[in-house]
Design brief:
Blueprint: H1 13-24, H2 26-45, H3 50-72, H4 80-104, H5 112-119
Helix pairs in contact: 1-2, 1-3, 1-4, 2-3, 2-5, 3-4
Length: 137
């Protein structure tokens, strides 16, 4: 299976490689989807922060780096800075997808479970997102 290029280039080749690896490995991609759904629950409760999202994504980046090294052995020596860069990019991706869903109604990039949570009447996006992510009625 050919690797697809990332939408946005990160600061280093290693960070780009790790981000592509996360998207192309099914177990890691499923875990990223689960994290997106979990973050959506925090958005609905009003206690979402970008730092919290980056921290959740950092755990994914750490595990992806370890798995990459086990699978390939060489190359891709992912430093803490690379993993933090990937975690920050994943958090930014999530925020972009969330804003697109709440502002424009285009929820195709979010997991279906997250979209279902956002459509519940009890969901009141708040916290750090503020007015930028309030749902259209």
């Amino acid at each position: 299976m050919a690797k697809r290029p990332s939408k946005r280039r990160l600061g280093s080749v290693d960070a780009d490689e790790l981000l592509i690896y996360i998207d192309n490995e099914q177990p890691l991609h499923r875990r990223k989807t689960a994290i997106f759904t979990s973050l959506t629950k925090h958005v609905c409760r009003g206690n979402f922060t970008k730092e919290g999202a980056a921290k959740a994504m950092k755990y994914l980046a750490d595990d992806a780096g370890k798995q990459y090294m086990r699978e390939f052995g060489t190359g891709g020596n992912f430093s803490v800075a690379h993993r933090k860069e990937v975690a920050s990019e994943l958090a930014t991706q999530y925020l972009g997808r969330l804003k697109m869903c709440t502002e424009r109604g285009n929820c195709g990039d979010l997991p279906s479970e997250a979209v279902a949570l956002l459509k519940k009447p009890s969901c009141k996006p708040g916290g750090e997102l503020g007015r930028a992510t309030k749902r259209r009625r």
